[in-house]
Design goal:
It is globular, with a radius of gyration of 20 Å. It has helices spanning 9-41, 45-75, 77-87, 94-106, 112-118, 144-149, 151-160, 162-173, 178-199; strands at 123-124, 127-128, 131-132, 137-138. The protein has a two-stranded antiparallel sheet. Strands 2-3 form a two-stranded antiparallel ribbon. The chain is 69% helix and 4% strand. By secondary structure, it is mostly helical.
């Protein structure tokens, strides 16, 4: 089912728009950081006004690109359906789902674990000699941008999604650190996103089980 979306023009267009949106996000953050420094550097009013104008213009462009993304998804029934399916998962919203759409609609993944591995969310265990020398850590590979975008949804899910909250608390009770627990929640969210799209079925509690 996922392979059917491969190389479709709307996926390429969505990917390009998201790339532009990501760049605008970086530009906005950079200019806001510069404006914040003005208060400590006694910068001239000319510089302050220049930064404010740039932030305003970049914000308008960001809004315009976001509208194009929303319209592109709305105009494509398959993309719209897949976004709705992911948004049925408590913790996954419109913004997070739009970033996951190209990944889950174009890659040939055989299972959810392959998606998590692609994002760098599968821990790798290092060994020394015949015994393990440390706890499993993330490989650091994969799509760092998408991985970072799953952090806040994982925090939301761990607090408000009953299934994810119980899973997170169980991991803490077993001695996992909060960071390890949230990483595991991120991984489980990816598994569920893959599942609801593959089976075209909205999320239900205990879906992962």
């Amino acid at each position: 089912m996922l392979a059917a979306f491969r190389n479709r023009p709307e996926i390429s267009k969505l990917r390009a728009l998201l790339s532009r949106l990501r760049q605008l996000n970086k530009d906005l953050q950079r200019e806001r950081n510069r404006l914040e420094k003005c208060a400590f550097l006694e910068a001239s009013e000319l510089l302050r006004h220049s930064l404010q104008r740039q932030i305003k213009a970049t914000t308008r462009e960001h809004t315009r690109i976001q509208r194009h993304i929303d319209q592109l998804i709305k105009d494509n029934p398959s993309l719209q359906r897949n976004q709705q399916l992911m948004c049925s998962i408590k913790g996954i919203g419109k913004i997070t789902s739009q970033w996951l759409l190209p990944l889950l609609s174009t890659q040939r993944f055989n299972n959810a674990r392959e998606v998590a591995a692609f994002l760098g969310l599968v821990p790798c265990h290092r060994s020394s000699g015949t015994s393990l020398s440390s706890r499993g850590k993330l490989s650091g590979r994969g799509n760092a941008n998408l991985r970072a975008r799953l952090y806040m949804p994982a925090m939301c899910a761990a607090a408000h999604n009953p299934e994810m909250k119980a899973f997170y608390q169980m991991l803490l009770a077993r001695g996992k650190t909060p960071k390890q627990g949230l990483t595991a929640v991120m991984r489980k969210l990816v598994h569920i996103c893959y599942g609801v799209i593959k089976h075209q079925t909205p999320y239900q509690e205990n879906y992962a089980a």
